[in-house]
Amino acid sequence: MTYRAPVEEFLFLFDHVVGLAQVAETKRFAEATPDLTAAILTEAGKLCRQVLAPLQRAGDLHPARLENGVVRTPPGFAGGWRAIAEGGWVGLAAPAEHGGMGLPQTLAAAVHEMMSGACLALQICPLLTQGQIEALTHHASDALKALYLPKLISGQWSGTMNLTEPQAGTDVGALRTSAVPNGDGTYAITGQKIFISWADAEFMENVVHLVLARLPDGVPGTGGISLFLVPRNLPDDEGRPGPANSLRVVSLEHKLGLHGSPTAMMEYDRATGWLVGAPHKGMAAMFTMMNNARLGVGMQGIGVAEAAYQKALAYARDRQQGRTPMGEGGIVEHADVRRMLATMKAELFAARAIALSCAVAIDMATATADADWSARAAFLTPIAKAHGTDIGLEVASMGVQIHGGMGFIEETGAAQFLRDVRVAPIYEGTNGIQAMDLVGRKLMDGGEAAWRLLEEVEQAAEAARPVLPDLAEEVWAAAESLRETTEWMLTQEPNDRFAGAVPYLRAWARVLGGHAHLAAARAEGGTGRRTALARVFVSRLLTEHGALLAQARSGAAGLYALSADDLAA
Amino acid sequence: MTYRAPVEEFLFLFDHVVGLAQVAETKRFAEATPDLTAAILTEAGKLCRQVLAPLQRAGDLHPARLENGVVRTPPGFAGGWRAIAEGGWVGLAAPAEHGGMGLPQTLAAAVHEMMSGACLALQICPLLTQGQIEALTHHASDALKALYLPKLISGQWSGTMNLTEPQAGTDVGALRTSAVPNGDGTYAITGQKIFISWADAEFMENVVHLVLARLPDGVPGTGGISLFLVPRNLPDDEGRPGPANSLRVVSLEHKLGLHGSPTAMMEYDRATGWLVGAPHKGMAAMFTMMNNARLGVGMQGIGVAEAAYQKALAYARDRQQGRTPMGEGGIVEHADVRRMLATMKAELFAARAIALSCAVAIDMATATADADWSARAAFLTPIAKAHGTDIGLEVASMGVQIHGGMGFIEETGAAQFLRDVRVAPIYEGTNGIQAMDLVGRKLMDGGEAAWRLLEEVEQAAEAARPVLPDLAEEVWAAAESLRETTEWMLTQEPNDRFAGAVPYLRAWARVLGGHAHLAAARAEGGTGRRTALARVFVSRLLTEHGALLAQARSGAAGLYALSADDLAA
Question: Is the model's pLDDT at A286 over the cut of 90?
Fold first, then answer.
């Protein structure tokens, strides 16, 4: 059983659901023709199946470890990284002037999903490196760009993101790492950072850390934070890695999953760094990296869901257990197993469509500089991240369930998906934070982005009525209820919004998922397997939106009627 | 942070929600006075906190292992078992004539929940031993009872359950293990069994296996299966363990969780066994053990949920991250964290009330031999098992989420709960099988047991109207919808029932949970922390029942509109 990259599915979504054509019609992304797109996804699919998927279990069995200060990665990971780098995959969406391919983020997102399904522990490394490329492209000086971007884009060097400190996780503003000017344009960075993914690797020529720290005149809180580039080895002007910087990996974490990915505590002791962006504007620069990473983490959830689904389906088709009302056959013929598999597939399709819609909005914003596209990308990012990772967790858990007792045995591999993906709803901003972002910052425009999306959903539903009257009505009605709840949200105090943020975000995912399924069903003329899947989604998943919206409007008072002592009683 | 046994909560549920008083009013359980009940739970709570909880992490770090045929258990487990045995906890509900305490199963269920919260990997051993005591009590010959029961009840010996074979899991009828009469009243048992929990332990004086096997004249399928008692060491007439039987532990599984519990593949090679119950009636005897174990597994889920909740709450009260709209404080002051904690607590209360109601019905059936109580116990068992374990998984996962990045680090301990409990929705009949049992066998009485339960829910809701009109109305209305869907179920073909079985079971859990919360709120006069929690349950969880019932009525056709090939496309 090997991971099979869902290339056809991506191409279908591009053509019929998320509208990649409009991206290819822009001058910026004119190269992204259907032929090139198909060729690229096919190539990436081969890499994932042939090179990366075989590393998945090895990464779990041979965790990254720290030996005399050197981070040793699992057998095969060095070769896997080399294949990713040499294939040009790190620089897929990076600027051509520094060696990238300049292709749409939508393609990069699809490739990230496939790499995540094949070997999540390794995929984190190119994902973070791409985020760093994005941040440097937008915020670094020309000198830094010229020196670092080619190395990162070619995959000779990799990039990390250093935000968290023991007392400063979600509350980044509480960080204590300091940056003191050295007087020569560089800064001395001192402090401890935790949860640093791919902080180092024995096979990496150099590792470039982006570190949030506070300048001496930085005010407390997020307003006083600046971003610094801190390489492991100080490069000369030609980009040859030179002397070791004053930083080290203190320890690696022992984690529930992602054993192949080294997660480090880092210590910076007057390490030499360079300012990226303006002083005290580190959060803005970091958010460039984070937003890219948030969509990428959403793709991680979806990729793991795809792999877990494939594995569970293969098992269910093969495993014989008793007769069913439908006759002999694998356990896939049992109604409840089929319910789980159909649910998994319907969720997967919806989450993937939502995430790729987000990617298309990002590309359109880049290509057109249109504020509406930026607003849509910003609105969809927390949904893509939170819902993609929620689905990752749920589908991986259902995958374990379908395997029965074998699911609990590590050799089977189903459990690894669950362990690996469990962090995705947590990192890059917990899913609770994503939901708060949605009902807070992302509705600050008075709901503009929301109204535009809902209008699109409703118009598409109207257009689908002649072909699929029942499905169209359900999607239309769900969008209407979501509109009402969005109006309600806009009139509420922040904490009442926050108290309903998570179910509100999921209600969006339900409506947007229904919209995507409807588009797919229409594309096949309202009859066929995609229509059947759309009916499963509408009858079994979209139907949750009423309860979700009721939960979204529950308000905070009921939660605070229970004191913390009451919760402990 | 140590596990704190929720003794007060049990006593409240006994008094105000599940009606333990009626059990104590029977002649059979007259000893179970409120004083004795409180004393017993307090003692058990001490054992769990002081002796068992400290073993939880050691069991994870030092998995059980097989060395030269000997099963070595984690450090401290031998002492833990001794404390359980010497405290008389194995025989709490066992017949007094063989050394048990003869107390209600309701108390045993509460004790099992506490032991599960403290150290699930070890708790499995007394749980299975009690199931075996139950099976032997009902089905074994007097000679077997006299020889084995005192040893099992005292905890000198332990018991296992041997059903599964590689090709025969859910489909037990496919088993191949054979039993051939030796001519002296014993049988030669030959075959392989897998997933045998606590198959052996270096500290156990003897281990007694209950093995399903087929006699030479046994027909294919479940109708030809008989049950055999097969001790590891053949005892003499005084119960001194003698020569080794012809059986062995072949290997131990490497599992996602429950590392401390040895899960074995067993080989029987003409091992000496004794028939338990009538020839070819093994399934009936095994079901006695399974039903007991099913409630016990439900308690496992609830126990782990309680422990995971306690840990997450302690972290959320301690962990400071930023200001909230409610001012400074731990992250428990953030609305979304509070939403998760309140949800966990509300779920926990409901699942515990349902499981204890099931236990009370079992006790009333035992004490009164009333068929209505038996029917209620039978009806509630799959709900208690499936919902208790679903909640265990969901609460453990939310516990990880509340811990943020720390939740993914194994040292924190939050992840272990998730890993350990993941098997509970799978073993003793998957939760899908439980749901099929509910809509199949358990509705075969034409819904009698269901109608009686719904009537009770509706009557209680009517009675609560003067005090809590809004909550009472919600619970009443939900019960009415459930009644309609139950009527619908009774008219459907099996596969249409099965296609909606899982959401139907959960809808029952929502309604019965609302019923329990309403009883708790009434008990405090409709104002106070229990009422606040009831409001959280009704507004955020009971509200799901509409969608659940719609899913329950979706039918099979929509699922089979997707062929297995469509699922793979």
Answer: no
